[in-house]
Specification:
Elements: H1 2-17, E1 26-30, E2 40-47, E3 57-59, E4 62-63, E5 69-71, E6 78-80, E7 84-85, E8 88-90, H2 96-99, E9 105-107, E10 113-119, H3 124-129, H4 139-146, H5 153-167, E11 173-178, E12 183-188, E13 194-198, E14 204-207, E15 224-226, H6 230-236, E16 242-243, E17 246-247, H7 249-253, H8 259-271, E18 286-287, H9 297-303, E19 329-337, E20 348-353, E21 362-365, H10 387-398, H11 402-437, H12 439-473, H13 486-490, H14 510-527
Antiparallel strand pairs: 1-2, 1-14, 2-19, 3-8, 4-7, 5-6, 9-10, 10-11, 11-12, 12-13, 13-15, 14-18, 16-17, 19-20, 20-21
Helix pairs in contact: 10-11, 10-12, 11-12, 12-14
Region (Disordered): 492-536
GO molecular function: cysteine-type exopeptidase activity; dipeptidase activity
EC number: 3.4.-.-
């Protein structure tokens, strides 16, 4: 009976991880006026399939010869390589030969971040008037074309526009290009029509797979960059639409909002404190919380897990509902830009592999020069050494029975994240101080810190997966699964002491540098949430 039960679970697991779907991501922006710590947040879920392996890598600074080209292996899109390509991070598909890179999210050495993309489509009339270009720019290319070439967010926007004017777009997309000074929200509508808007600090946005940008002021070059004929083209081709007496880009160019997109806009805005009717004729892209309550990075993590709990529109009550939190997430990420961060540090990336609901957000800075080995394992199919498969396998089993299997996994990762968030302020102070003395030493430190945290979390994922499979094999039906590592937090839950990520001052000499690195590694290990010290 035990063997039969385990076999049934594994069969269900394989079926679950083999599900594929169309691109269906959800993006979020929280301006610094609305975050609890004054940071700017840009976030997105990459929703494509429960069986879509990802890597997390660093591309080193590279020199190219004249005439060398970037090439999209699927469409044939090409673009000249720069003489010097800047170092950058990305989260590409493991199987890049299948359909391209899909770098999704990353920072470069100048602190620029690209988050691409939320797929969207123009309406039939717009596409007929300005068709997509087969070998034009597409999602798979954006991160790897933009980040090696630009030193600011605005420079990135200008590069995108140059490429669209020269090469055209292969598809509709919504994405962001950001640095510590600016966040640009970009919509590519058709083959050669687009609009970009510099997002102010005093707004919040949640955007699913549809265009949502409203009024575009072509005379305001400081805040808008768009096709010169964006409005006139719409008028000439019978797609021009107004809202509240003004041109509305999304109503003009977008296809009608689908039920799945309506589900997520409604859920996201309400979750973040802005009451909006499900049947609203038009959803504003930007809003502010009604109660004035500030939004934390943890709130955004929970948004990316949100399955409309507490409402009538849950998947359990209506299987057609498309929630923001979904088993189809290949990864999800949150970027924080903070005023105290030097530009070259970039920001802080919180990323989870697999469905966030039963996975964990782990931090890494934009200046890292390497990632944990498991992030780099190229395994399209299940591989116990792969970071993606470690987290995805655990979450896939947890999702088979959220009450009996998943609740314990989620509770542990919740406590783990809380400990990481609590110690981040002190980590920030250490990293900023190191950056002021030596960018190389700071990069060495942040790299080791991120790898240590990731390796610790992966060891906990492995342990919970093993324990959960053992729990299922024993066919327990009365008591919900509780991972053994949960005791580390429960034993210390009444104390508020937090172990710092490091207490070591940056060193100036080579000998001191070595000592600093070794001590930092020891301190980081102590600070990992799953250890006894960090649980204090």
């Amino acid at each position: 009976m035990k063997k039969k039960t385990t076999a049934m679970v594994m069969a269900s697991l394989m079926a679950l991880t083999s599900i594929t779907s169309a691109f269906a991501c959800t993006g979020t922006i929280v301006g610094s006026d609305w975050t609890d710590d004054g940071s700017t947040i840009v976030a997105r879920t990459e929703d494509i399939s429960g069986n879509h392996a990802k890597n997390y890598i660093v591309h080193p600074r590279t020199t190219y010869k004249a005439g060398e080209m970037f090439k999209d292996v699927t469409t044939g899109f090409t673009y000249p390589q720069p003489s010097v390509a800047y170092q950058y991070t990305s989260v590409p598909d493991t199987d890049i030969q299948a359909d391209g890179y899909y770098g999704e999210i990353g920072f470069n050495e100048y602190g620029v971040s690209v988050d691409a993309t939320v797929s969207a489509s123009a309406n039939e009339k717009a596409q007929a008037a300005d068709p997509y270009v087969e070998d034009g720019l597409r999602e798979a290319d954006i991160v790897d074309v933009i980040l090696p070439r630009v030193k600011s967010a605005r420079e990135g926007v200008n590069l995108v526009i140059d490429i669209l004017n020269e090469k055209g777009a292969a598809e509709g997309n919504v994405f962001t290009i950001s640095d510590k000074d600016e966040v640009w929200y970009i919509e590519i509508y058709t083959g050669h029509r687009f609009a970009a808007y510099k997002v102010p600090d005093n707004v919040v946005a949640v955007f699913p797979n549809c265009f949502m940008l409203g009024y575009v002021d072509l005379n305001n070059a400081e805040s808008y960059v768009a096709s010169k004929d964006l409005i006139e083209f719409a008028k000439q081709n019978g797609i021009y639409q107004e809202y509240n007496g003004k041109f509305h880009a999304a109503l003009s160019y977008s296809e009608p909002i689908s039920g799945g997109n309506r589900d997520r806009v409604w859920a996201g805005q309400n979750f973040l404190g802005h009451a909006v009717d499900y049947d609203a004729p038009v959803f504003d892209l930007f809003f502010t919380p009604d109660d004035g309550e500030k939004i934390s990075v943890k709130d955004v993590m929970e948004l990316q897990r949100y399955r409309n709990e507490g409402t009538e529109k849950t998947p359990e009550k209506d299987s057609s509902v498309r929630t923001i939190g979904t088993e189809r997430s290949a990864e999800a990420h949150i970027v924080q830009f903070k005023d105290e961060y030097p530009k070259e540090l970039g920001g802080l990336l919180w990323m989870t592999m697999g469905n966030p609901e039963h996975s964990v957000y782990l931090p890494s800075f934009g200046n890292i020069n390497d990632t944990a080995d498991a992030y780099q394992v190229e395994a399209i199919d299940y591989n116990a050494d792969s970071a993606y498969w470690k987290f995805r396998s655990l979450s896939a089993v947890a999702e088979l029975n959220r009450e009996m299997y998943g609740a314990g996994v989620r509770a542990y990762w919740d406590a783990y994240e809380d400990a990481l968030i609590a110690q981040q302020e002190q980590t920030d102070d250490t990293v900023v101080a190191l950056m002021a003395k030596s960018e190389d030493k700071a990069a060495a430190y942040t790299t080791e810190l991120a790898e240590t945290i990731a390796n610790d979390a992966m060891s906990k994922a492995d342990l919970m997966f093993s324990e959960l499979m053992g729990y299922i094999a024993k066919n327990k039906t009365t008591d919900a699964f509780v991972p053994s590592v949960m005791a580390e937090f429960e034993a210390k839950e009444e104390t508020t002491e937090t172990v710092p990520a490091t207490e070591v001052a940056p060193a100036e000499t080579a000998a001191e540098t070595t000592a600093t690195t070794e001590t930092a590694a020891e301190s980081t290990t102590e600070a990992a949430p799953a250890t006894e010290a960090a649980a204090k």
